[in-house]
Amino acid sequence: MSPQYKPTATNTVAFSLNRYAAVVAVLALSIMSYLPAAEAAVELDPADRPSSLSGSYLAGRSADISNDIDAALAYLTYTLEADRGNPVLGDRVLSLQIAAGEIEPALDLAERLTITDPDNPTARIALAASAIKNGRYALAKQELENVRKSPLTTLTSGLLRAWADQGLGRTDEALTSITALTGPTWYEVFKDFHRALIADAAGRNNEADAAITGTYENENVPPVGIVDAYARIKARNGDREEALRALNELSGGEQQLVGLASALAQRPEILLLDEPTAFLDLAHQLQIYQILRELHRKRNSTLILVTHDLNLAESFCSRVVFLKEGRIEAEITKDSDSSDPLITPELVQEVFGVESQIISDGTNSRVILSYGD
């Protein structure tokens, strides 16, 4: 092994914790919604592999710091294959697998990590979340008994334990255990939020309403998830006007995300979308299209959308049908082996009667259509 490669607990602690909260959020969501079976872990093409193990590790760390999850996962997984007993590296790969939605490989790795590091919090919480999802509530509580304590893991394991109790039909115990959680002041919003969700799941409408109302009113700018839960609970309790008022206070992009989440929760095989990014800023447009692309990649769902944005169609769509005066004017399919643009100036001229030029971004992965002179 190269002497430069030393991923120890000391020199990777910030690297390992910088996205832990996001990983916890993914695990918590997996209790209440289905996470699709993952594809095989991203693998490096032999031509892209660094010449040394330390090079692979440094490339993975650089990608991780840059929030390029797929690249970080590919490089660090390759490194872990040569250093399978490294618990710090294993923990990082596990976190990245969860963040990337690769749940099945993550659970396999979690099982391995608990052999060498029985108190590993990421591994234990992952296994507990999986057990809850599969209805094995007693096993989930057993997994959580072995979680190494810290403020974040105490909160996360406490909330998961409450959901396990709810799964066992012990709603009173679930709500009481959440109330009993003590820690930093930022615990309270999570406690109130999960109290509301558990009470709602148990059909205790008044308790759910009181808990979610407190959470909603205590936030100056409530996050989308809290607004969504608040509106749903209010609507179920008959206060449709207040539910609509809360949703209408969201920005256009946030409203689109809430609507998209509602649609995805039904696990459709075919999803029809009419102008999903209309009137949204660029950041929300890209976020929604990235969510849709991941949905197609991981669930193999068919997505059919109407859009007037040719740049987004070029960047995200594999097949485009152009309509003119109510009839199909052209239909094109992207060749996965070609870097040529899907939409050409000739096609734009034919369909829209507009002159355009294509400007490459230098990577052949996207183009920009510039209209006019």
Brief overview, please?
This protein has helices spanning 13-17, 20-32, 53-65, 69-82, 87-99, 103-116, 121-133, 137-144, 151-167, 171-179, 187-201, 205-218, 224-236, 240-248, 252-264, 282-299, 310-316, 345-352; strands spanning 270-274, 302-306, 319-324, 327-333, 356-360, 367-371.
Structure description:
- This protein has 18 helices and six strands.
- With 373 residues, the chain is mainly alpha-helical.
- Among the domains are: 1-168, Serine Threonine Protein Phosphatase 5, Tetratricopeptide repeat; 184-248, Serine Threonine Protein Phosphatase 5, Tetratricopeptide repeat, CATH 1.25.40.
- The strands form three sheets. The chain has a two-stranded parallel sheet. The chain has a two-stranded antiparallel sheet with strand order 3-4.
- A hairpin with a 6-residue loop joins strand 5 and strand 6 (367-371).
- Helix 2 (20-32) packs across helix 5.
- The chain starts with 12 loop residues before the first helix and ends with a strand.
- Mean pLDDT is 78; it is low at 1-42.
Notable characteristics:
Serine Threonine Protein Phosphatase 5, Tetratricopeptide repeat; about 60% helix; about 375 residues; two-stranded antiparallel ribbon; two-stranded parallel ribbon; flat; mainly alpha; disordered N terminus
